[in-house]
Amino acid sequence: MLGNLKPQAPDKILSLMAEFKADTRQGKIDLGVGVYKDPTGLTPVMRAVKKAEQKIWETQNTKSYTALAGEPEYRDAMSSMVLGALGGDRVASVGTVGGTGAIRQALELVRMANPDAVIHVSDPTWPNHVSILNFMGQAYEMYPYFDNETRGIAFEAMLDGIGKAKKGDVVLLHGCCHNPTGANPTAEQWDAIAESLEKTGATPLIDLAYQGFGDGLDEDAAATRMIAERLPEVLIAASCSKNFGIYRERTGILMTLTNDAKSRDLSQGAMAYLNRQNYSFPPDHGARIVSTILTDDALKADWKAELEEVRQTMLGLRTQLADELRTLSGSDKFDFIARHRGMFSRIGATPEQVARMKEDAGIYMVGDSRLNIAGLNRDTVPILARAIVEAGV
Ligand code: PMP
């Protein structure tokens, strides 16, 4: 039976990682995989995470099952972190296996609520969105998003695209730090997006995987909060992988906001049911780290301070890279790198130019020319800038 399986195409980013590893050149630079790296190339365990783990180790006296929806302390703490004071009793939520699990459960929930729903996703989007939609056989359409000339958002086209969504459809939005492009709507553009959703009656599904990596913890949640305030029904899939640096602990949350207690309770029940069908109890360790940090003033302050250091490091690298490119190219056409936010920027290079940078300079980025800013440090920025100009981008 198992011999009938079809071979699966390997994940492009994981293949790139393997290729990088096999490259024996000194000075090679990995800008592929989407994890934060400090200037020494390490993806560190955050200070507050270490302390929270110690606290858990010292105080935890059982590893018995918890709640099917995940621990309430974690879900409440995440609701506050994402929604501020807004959350309250409009929110139903479940802990999930990472942000990926939250997206998957969100799509399953939509399918249960409306089998005819069409999911509208940005072109481009995080490839795993499309991969999961294809795997599920879920109907979807792509709305224009990126302008390859300006490396900003093709906003009029985007609005046209999401305007085609109907009531009962879902519009998947990146709450901040768009992956893979790094280009994000302005506050006015977010208002127009909310207006479009109000008009069409489509339900937003907000993927919030990088809160704290863009403009700040609250700033990165501002669009999500505005939409949650204005729209009667909102789904939010949040990940703790990046902002707590707990990638392998698989910590995420799916939240729904509704305007009536009946829909909230139905949603809560359906999400817990979905957890049961897919993996039963969600992972606890990462969720407990997060709630331990968020409910302890000292740990929370330390975590926020370190997250801010991470954010500032990435912003500094963006500014340095944009400055180097302005000098080397004699033009301001790369200034978008300083305007982009989050870990990624799509620099608009052709696949041939991406290949050339790999071959000539040992610089590895994803084929669509997405680079991970955090893969750089102050010494490698000038090397990348030179390679970009020499490749003729
Ligand atoms: N959404 C987006 C846009 C992402 O980039 C990621 C991580 N690469 C996720 C969701 C999910 O991350 P995880 O499952 O590791 O929490």
Automatic annotation (TrEMBL):
It comes from the Bacteria. Homodimer. GO terms for cellular component: cytosol. InterPro entries: Aminotransferase_I/II_large, Asp_trans, PyrdxlP-dep_Trfase, PyrdxlP-dep_Trfase_major, PyrdxlP-dep_Trfase_small. This is Aspartate/tyrosine/aromatic aminotransferase. Belongs to the class-I pyridoxal-phosphate-dependent aminotransferase family. Its cofactor is pyridoxal 5'-phosphate.
